[in-house]
UniProtKB/TrEMBL annotation:
Gene3D superfamilies: alpha/beta hydrolase (3.40.50.1820). It comes from the Eukaryota. It comes from Micractinium conductrix. Residues 102-246 form the KANL3/Tex30 alpha/beta hydrolase-like domain. Residues 253-289 have a biased composition (Low complexity). SUPFAM superfamilies: alpha/beta-Hydrolases. This is Testis-expressed sequence 30. Residues 253-324 are annotated as: Disordered.
Length: 324
């Protein structure tokens, strides 16, 4: 028996607009699962797909930790569209291979995918309950809960514009939600000073872990001499952090010590903190569609520039060309 079982296919999901979308997926199952009731959903960035950049390696790290990993491809549309598709897929994930008993997900994503993961995790509880009732009336499965987040190259601000923070969605996250953040120190979407200010402004986050790839760009790749080798080492460092993070999450799931509330709800204290955070930070919810379009164009423009600068770095460069 192989250590990993992989299945590919596509699932048609209905959207709030009344239309439907075919979503290609890749499911990878470990030989031995850490928790039969939890899995990882890994989301790509703008313009990418389920196999872009370092996503296969991150998926392998998840499976090595005993976690089933689901990757999807969602091309086209802005941030709002990506969020709607992700929610619709989660509501029907139980019908996918190996997912019938999954009731909770670790949401993970690269760049725009990380923004989508955060948005789903911070969904208003009233809307969540209303949709559950609608799904039950229609005979659909209820949306699984979110038990943790893994954010890779979260685009905290547009390139070169650290004053335009996209931190509102981070401030709205439940304070008890475990979060892993991996970023490159040279990421144009993620300046260190901007992160320092953001983390300082957030409520206490005991379950957060930050991993910085020294010299890493938005694709977590390192340029310069021996860039390919250094990039591979950096990616292994991130993969090790993923394995450690999921091991702890698996222990919480197995023991039942941490019962994650539905996305968007972490008690009245969290609601007050989220409201205060959104008042003090960017009004991301109001501008999500436009910001998503700008984010996608920024990512594509950054990718084009990176291709020109690093055409000689094939090993890492190929991942960057696909990984956006």
């Amino acid at each position: 028996m192989s250590a990993t079982e992989q299945t590919t296919g596509s699932l048609v999901v209905p959207l709030p607009s009344g239309k439907s979308k075919e979503v290609p997926y890749i499911v990878e199952l470990p030989a031995t699962s850490s928790s039969e009731h939890a899995a990882v959903l890994l989301l790509h960035g703008a313009g990418g797909d389920a196999s872009s950049g370092h996503l296969p390696q991150l998926a392998a790290a998840c499976v090595a930790s005993g976690w089933p990993c689901l990757r999807i491809t969602c091309r086209g549309g802005n941030l709002d569209h990506r969020i709607a598709v992700t929610k619709a897929l989660l509501a029907r994930a139980a019908g996918l291979p190996g997912m019938s008993t999954v009731r909770a997900f670790v949401l993970a994503g690269h760049s725009m995918g990380a923004r989508v993961a955060c948005a789903v995790a911070t969904e208003d509880n009233a809307q969540q309950q209303q949709r559950k009732q609608q799904q039950q009336q229609a005979g659909d499965d209820a949306l699984p809960s979110v038990c943790a987040l893994m954010l890779f190259s979260f685009p905290l601000h547009p390139p070169g514009k650290p004053q335009q923070l996209r931190d509102g969605v981070l401030a709205a996250l439940p304070t008890a939600l475990p979060v892993l953040v991996a970023r490159g120190s040279g990421d144009a979407f993620s300046q260190q000073a901007a992160w320092d200010a953001t983390l300082e402004s957030l409520p206490a986050r005991e379950g957060w872990r930050m991993v910085a790839v020294e010299g890493g760009d938005h694709g977590l790749c390192v340029s310069g001499k021996d860039g390919a080798q250094r990039s591979a080492a950096a990616l292994e460092e991130v993969a090790a952090a993923v394995r450690q993070f999921l091991q702890a999450a698996g222990q919480r799931q197995a023991s039942g010590a941490a019962q994650q509330q539905p996305p968007g709800r972490a008690g009245s204290e969290t609601g007050e903190a989220a409201a205060a955070g959104q008042g003090a930070h960017t009004t991301e919810a109001a501008d999500a569609g436009k910001a998503g379009e700008d984010d996608e164009e920024d990512e594509r423009r950054t990718t084009r520039g990176r291709r020109k600068r690093r055409a000689t770095q094939q090993a890492c460069g190929e991942g960057r060309r696909k990984g956006r």
